[in-house]
Fold Retinol-binding protein pinta-like isoform X2.
Amino acid sequence: MSTLNKYTCQLSSEEKIYLAANLNETDEIRPIKIAEIRQWIIQNNDLHAPTDDFFILRFLRACKFNVEKTKSKLWNYYKQRANLPEWVFLPLRKLDNQGRMIVIIRVAAHSPSRHKMSDMLKASLMILDVALRDHESVTIYGVTSILDLDNITYEHVLQLPPNVIRNLVHAWQGCYPVRIYSLDFINAHRFVNTVLNIFRSFMNKKLKQRVHVHSRDKLKLHETLPKNILPKEYGGTNGTIKELSEYWKHVVEENQEWFIEEEKYKLTLIK
């Protein structure tokens, strides 16, 4: 177990009102539910997870303070990390006007002849872990995910068999301690409709309703998101994709000791 760190709420009154109305969190309920989940972790010999307040709070918020759903998501989080130790997420450095994190997933950013999809997963999950750790507002307002299908080829599609898609969807909706408010597929080609239908087949009703598919030029991100948070390639002013990639590479390198510590937490019995 990790050292017990108490959470000190420094949120604004507006954020507290939002939490109470949308995530069932109040100053009175928060410590009670955190303690309940902590006790469950301590008593579960198969689960080695941090027990500090904010780690638990992230999962509680993602589940609107439903204790049983929180236990399930936390369990699935470590089960997923064990079964899939290695995907490509690139969070923007700034949050949008609603306090949400924007994550761009560039499906065709790699060469299928040189890299497997699974080879790219571990670094991407490391990036996402740090981003979620460092932005508390994301645990409140959630994430908007943008899957850019530009330059996708049949070779890329062949790297997405149903079992890989199932695991990805499971990670989004059942494992990570964050709520997805929108899942936008942009620059979609006709031939990827089959793949998109497979994605939908594994989604729950709520996530399906948050999926939006946009053909080329149908969605201009700079018209729906602030320019100052977007890379130049997407009509923004906040650097380039290359600079964003280098930024997250640097962040990951700076957090090596934290990642080593995180590797200690796991399920000892995969169910």
About this structure: DSSP finds 13 helices and seven strands in the chain. Residues 67-83 form the longest helix (17 residues). Residues 99 and 219 are 21 Å apart (CA to CA). The first strand starts at residue 47 and ends at 48.
